Amino acid sequence: MSYTIEKKEMGYLLFTMARNEKRNAVNYDIMHGLTEAISLAKDPAIKALVITGEGEQAFCSGGDLSVFHQLHTKEEAYPMLSKMSEILYSLLTLTKPTIALLNGTAIGGGCELAAACDFRLARDGIKAGFVQGKQAITTGWGGGTILAEKLPAAGTMKLLMEAEIQPAEYLREVGFIDKIYSSDPISACEDFLEKLLAVNFTVLESYKMIWIRKWEESRLRERIEKEVSNCSVLWESESHHQYVNRFMNKKTQN
What we know:
With about 250 residues, this protein is of the alpha/beta class. It is built from 11 helices and 10 strands. Strands 1-2-3-5-7-10 form a 6-stranded mixed sheet, with helices on both faces. The protein is globular and about 55 Å long. The protein starts with a strand and ends with a helix. The model has no long low-confidence stretch (mean pLDDT about 95).
């Protein structure tokens, strides 16, 4: 199993990507797990959903190219990109507080997954970056569009266009990271959640609906779909295939 789902004593659901040897890269099994976790989190007994990764090395390194390198054309890439965008939109519009607990580095699609959560907590010393530009593609799961909803335009453009991996302190300054912790990840997360979960659930849900209604009225889902379509076109470009080939050759040599 590539993931675990656990209900914690405080009443939140903890989803853990359990692929430490692959830097918790997303494969189809993790996609299934995220769908399951989001569905389970709708239970009235669940107060929040927390997403994290196994180990200390990585939160999530994005899509697993050892799986997705077999997708060559836009017609082949689109179903995978679209499926993950639907998952992230479901996560974004879940009427419960959602937390991305960055236990380690977040790269590419890992940052997109984190962006879809309401809050992002990062372990001191970790780095993260929307590096898709260096892979000759754009964000393709809707993360760029989601990020543009949450951060000022200049900060969003810089993170996306420079495609650099940044330290947690910088990401905190631009608003991507909400809190940097140095203690045990679960303890830090529960400290962050304590005051939030003390509030009546219907109040939290009502507040979350303010943003959900805004996103529905601004046709966020449709804008995400355009991002997905654009990425699928870039996916079949020679530049992207060259990057994937270099990456796969490097993995083979290692």
